[in-house]
From TrEMBL:
Name this protein carries in UniProt: Leucine-rich repeat domain-containing protein
Record flagged with keyword Repeat: yes
InterPro entries, A to Z: Leu-rich_rpt, Leu-rich_rpt_4, LRR_dom_sf, SDS22/Internalin_LRR
A Pfam family reported for this protein in Swiss-Prot or TrEMBL: LRR_4
SUPFAM superfamilies listed in its UniProt record: L domain-like
Keywords: Leucine-rich repeat, Repeat
Length: 378
C-alpha cells in the first residue's frame, strides 16, 4: 500500500476509529498500526489478511468471508466482533483473555468450547448459530448479558448457574423450564418462541424487563406474579383481558400493540406508566387512564375511528402518535378539541419529527387539512 492510500485512510479516522466498507482491493492491514487506530471496523471487504499489530482495543470484521482469524497476538482487544463470517475458524480467540465483549453471530458455530478461557467476558452474542452446543459457557462466571436468538437450542441447563440477562428469542421448541432456577434474572427476551405455557416464569420475581411478544397462544396468567416488572412487551400475544396486569404496579413501559383489546379500564391502577403502545387495537375509550399523571408517550395507530376527546384527559402527555387519523371529519374534530381544551396544538407532525411543543403526531395526509383549520381560525 502506497503513502497516498495510507493518507486517504488517515483522513477517515474519527476519534481513533477507522471504518472500511466494501473494499475489494484491501489485503494487508499492517498500515493500521501507523495510524494510531484503536477501533477498526471492516465490513463487506473480501480477501483480507489479518496481519494486524497489537494496537487495537476494538476489532469488528463483519461479513468478510474470513476463513482464518489470525488474532491470537491481539492481547489488547477488549471488544471483538466477527459477525457473519460463516467459514471462520476462531479457536485462536481463547488467547484473548482481556476480552469483555464478543459477538460471533452467524458464524455457523457448533460449540463454544474455545470460549471457556475468556473469564472476563461480560457480554456475549451468539445469535443465528443454529444447533450450537452452549455447554462450554459454564466457566464464564462474569457474563452479564447473553444473546442466543435463533440458535435452535436444545438444552439450556448450563444457564442455571450464570447470573445473566438473556435473549432466547426465536428458539422454537426449546424447553425453557430450566430458566425458572435463575431467580436473579432481571432481563429476559423470549419473543417469537411459539410458547403455550409460561408457568416457569412464576419464580422469576426479580425480572424488571420482559419481552414475550409474538407468542400468540401463550397462557399469560403467570405474569401476575412478576410485580417488579418495569418494562413489558406483549405485542402480538392475542391478549384481550388485561386483569392479569393489575398487580404490575411498577410498570413504566407497556406494549400492548396489535392485540384484541377493546377495554383498557383494568389499567387504571398502573399509575407509574410513562409510555404505552396501544397501536392496532379497537379501544372505545381512554377515560380509564385519566388518573395517570405520568404518561409521556402514547401510541394509538389504527384505531382513531371516533372523536378522540378521551385523549385530552391525559393532560401530562408530551407526545401522542398515530398514523391513521386521516379523514377530514376527524381532522375537524381534533381542531375542535384544540379550542375546547385549550391545548397548545399548533401543528400535526410526522412520526419522526420532534418539537418542544406539546405534540400530537399523525400521518402527513392531514397536515395540510389541520393547518388550514388553524389558519382559518386566526
Amino acid at each position: 500500500m502506497n503513502i497516498e492510500d495510507i493518507n486517504n485512510f488517515r483522513n477517515q479516522i474519527e476519534n481513533g476509529e477507522l471504518k472500511i466498507n466494501k473494499n475489494k482491493n484491501l489485503q494487508s492491514l499492517k498500515f493500521v498500526s501507523e495510524l494510531n487506530v484503536r477501533k477498526l471496523v471492516i465490513r463487506n471487504s473480501l480477501n483480507i489478511i489479518l496481519d494486524l499489530e497489537d494496537t487495537l482495543t476494538e476489532l469488528h470484521i463483519i461479513n468478510c468471508k474470513l476463513k482464518q482469524a489470525n488474532i491470537k497476538h491481539l492481547k489488547s482487544l477488549e471488544l471483538l466482533e466477527l459477525r457473519q463470517n460463516t467459514n471462520i475458524k476462531i479457536d485462536e480467540i481463547s488467547f484473548l483473555t482481556n476480552l469483555k465483549t464478543v459477538d460471533l453471530s452467524d458464524c455457523a458455530l457448533l460449540h463454544v468450547d474455545y470460549l471457556q478461557e475468556l473469564v472476563n467476558v461480560q457480554v456475549l452474542t451468539l445469535n443465528d448459530n443454529r444447533g450450537i452446543d452452549i455447554s462450554g459457557l459454564q466457566n464464564m462466571k462474569q457474563l452479564k448479558e447473553l444473546y442466543l436468538a435463533d440458535c435452535c437450542l436444545k438444552d439450556i441447563h448450563v444457564l442455571e448457574n450464570l447470573p445473566i440477562e438473556e435473549d432466547l428469542s426465536r428458539n422454537v421448541r426449546l424447553n425453557l423450564d430450566p430458566i425458572k432456577h435463575i431467580v436473579s434474572l432481571k432481563i429476559l427476551s423470549i419473543w417469537g418462541n411459539q410458547l403455550k405455557d409460561i408457568s416457569f416464569m412464576k419464580s422469576l420475581v426479580n425480572l424488571v424487563e420482559l419481552d414475550i411478544s409474538r407468542n400468540d397462544k401463550a397462557d399469560l396468567t403467570a405474569l401476575s406474579q412478576l410485580s417488579n416488572l418495569k418494562s413489558l412487551n406483549l405485542c402480538f400475544t392475542g391478549i384481550y383481558d388485561l386483569s392479569i396486569l393489575r398487580k404490575l404496579v411498577n410498570l413504566t413501559y407497556l406494549d400492548l400493540s396489535s392485540n384484541n383489546i377493546f377495554d383498557v379500564s383494568e389499567l387504571d391502577c398502573l399509575q407509574q406508566l410513562e409510555q404505552i403502545n396501544l397501536e392496532g387495537n379497537k379501544i372505545i375509550s381512554f377515560k380509564a387512564l385519566e388518573s395517570n399523571q405520568n404518561f409521556q408517550e402514547f401510541y394509538i395507530h389504527e384505531q382513531l375511528e371516533r372523536t378522540p376527546e378521551d385523549i385530552m384527559y391525559l393532560n401530562r402527555l408530551s407526545i401522542v402518535k398515530s398514523s391513521s387519523f386521516s379523514s377530514k371529519t376527524a381532522c375537524n374534530q381534533l381542531f375542535h378539541i384544540r379550542k375546547q381544551y385549550k391545548q397548545n396544538i399548533t401543528k400535526i407532525f410526522n412520526l419522526t419529527e420532534k418539537s418542544s411543543l406539546r405534540q400530537v403526531q399523525f400521518s402527513e395526509q392531514i397536515v395540510a387539512l389541520f393547518s388550514s383549520c388553524v389558519n382559518n381560525d386566526q
